[in-house]
Design brief:
The complex is a heterodimer of chains A (85) and B (610). Chain A has one domain. Chain A is 75% helix and 5% strand. In chain A, strands 1-2 form a two-stranded antiparallel ribbon. In chain B, 71% of the residues lie in helices and 1% in strands. A two-stranded antiparallel sheet of chain B has the order 1-2. In chain B, helix 6 crosses helix 18 and helix 7 packs across helix 25. Chain B starts with a helix and ends in a 13-residue tail after the last helix. In chain B, 57% of the residues are buried. The chains are: A mainly alpha (85), B mainly alpha (610). At the A-B interface, helix 1, helix 2, strand 2 and helix 3 of A face helix 7, helix 12, helix 13, helix 15 and helix 17 of B.
Amino acid sequence: MSNKDAHFEKTKSHMIVTLAIWFFFSTVVFMFGESLNSASFLGYPLAYYMTAQGSLAAFIILIFWMSGKQEDIDEEFGFGEREDD
Amino acid sequence: MLKGGFIQNLPKIYGLYTGGFIVFILLMAILESSGVSAKTIGQLFLAFTVLIYALIGWLSRTVQVDAYYVAGREVPTVFNGMATAADWMSGASFVAMAGGIYFGGYIYMAFLVGWTGGYVLVAALLAPYLRKFGCYTVPDFIGTRYGGNFVRFCAVLVLVIASFTYVTAQINATGTIASRFLGIPFEQGVWIGLLSILMCSMLGGMRAVTWTQVAQYIVLIIAYLLPVFWISNKFGFGIIPHFQLGPEVARIAELEAQYGLVKNSADAVKAAGVPGGLASISTAHSAVPAGSAWKYISLAICMMVGTASLPHILMRYFTTPSVKSARKSVAWSLFFIFLLYSSAPMLATLSKISLIDPNLPTGIIGKSISDVQNIDWVKNWIAVKQAYIADFNNDGILQLNEWFMRGDVVVLATPEVAGLPYVISGLVAAGGMAAAMSTADGLILAIANALSHDIYYKIIDPKADVRKRLLAARVLLVVIGALGAYIASMRLTGILGAVAWAFDFAMSGLFFPLVLGVWWKRATREGAIAGILLGLASGTAYLIYVAPAFMNNTPWLQIDHLRFGIIGASVSLVAMVVVSLMTKEPDAATQKMVDDCRVPSGKPVISRQH
């Protein structure tokens, strides 16, 4: 397997992990909205909290994490960019 | 040179600008206390901010193709995030979202998740790869990756349909605000709004739009957050409302149980003479309605996938200096969007509790109707048909189901309801104007660029020189804007219907051709054409079939006119995969192009000046 292919394989699995986490916070959580709402977080009903704030914050953290990890993958295979590029 | 100096000095320049704006707000507060009329203050707010944007637009004028289409690809990560946030948050987000949550409760909040979750798709699937590709527009990617003018044309078609649906709503919003605060008729307000929008983008294209959008973001976020924090602190609900409104949400649920959530019959509402577009609270604030999971999820999915297909957002990531910064910039965009979106439910909560809790001095529910009708803000908003009282049970006491108002009032009137000085209302108007203008600018530019670069330069006249190309781009900008303003002045659709439709159109025609273009080498030109056209056609056909304004048939699986993209995108995926597998594998050059766009290092796939 060439360096490029290996890089893409790793990029692809990273993308799939990212989308799995995304799917959890955007969809799975809200499949159980009714039962989640009987729990509470910061005094808010949990499902209400997730749709008002929780999932939104999770997406931000997810993208920052995803970018950082992808930069590491790019460096590992020697495809990182020079700063002045 | 000065230009390099400008980029290095950005934090200082925008720091000064923010400081200047705060000084301006204080100055207005002083004017207000010295007796200057509310109307003058509103006008000063609009005039001052719009003039600043026009000045930035003029300073950013350019005669270079690279600067005109992609801001010279030198917009730093965080600033691009701010510009994207302004590009993204429309008049609807600013003015209508808190009101939507106020009346729609939990299900409406699917928009919050949908309009933020889509950025994960943008960052993971598209933005860095399109940046590496080096295209000027989204159809430029489709046209180069799949090869050929016809597939390029198909992509432009979807772009124009989706963006145009969206832009009329934005021009409409600028018109509403301009007419309200300048005291001119709506039809004239629309043209004033358009003039302001064009001043930002005409001379400098993407470069001018970028730097005005950053300025507009600063105005709109101050205008949105200041009242939320002020009200929360004034009533002692908490210093940071986002973490401390739990007891108020619980109190609202308690009051809902006490009053009962009554849904008035349409006939009763009509008989009482309630003006159109006004509503009373009939949905629980925080409770999850039974059996609503699919209704919520299907809406969120449409908005997320639509986000990742909207060209005016994707093209913002063409302006960063590197692939790495394009990716990080998505995260910053979402952070800046989050500041407003996480505040909308808080504003809805504050607004609702200050109206319905009889223990608060501002509460009106449960009070005598004749007293309520004498409150200043109630009088003002009833006079302009934005609020209404209907005493259904004739007991002279205002019940929860007897108080009607328009959703927009939540943002526009809450400062007044809570007894904040008028200067805050002027600030909110300036914020709404900034939100609508920045989105309209991005959209009009996306359409005009696609027509000038992809249709005029790539298809009609590939030999056109730079001067001619930029002239065509500017003429198209004015024509598209004028067309949008003309349609807006006819007032055809409500703001929200049109906005959700734009997402569905975009996801029907563009999502899979874009994503598979990067992630599936086997995707062919014929497959892409089938995906775009069949997706768009099936989505549109389904929309016509279910939309109340058209055939009004019963939706299949609760997929109504706000969610028709699910049908379009599914058809698009199947058509694209089947047709791609039936046709010949793309040639080696195309495959190499895809390989190249998957690694960040090296030259862009398309040459820098093209």
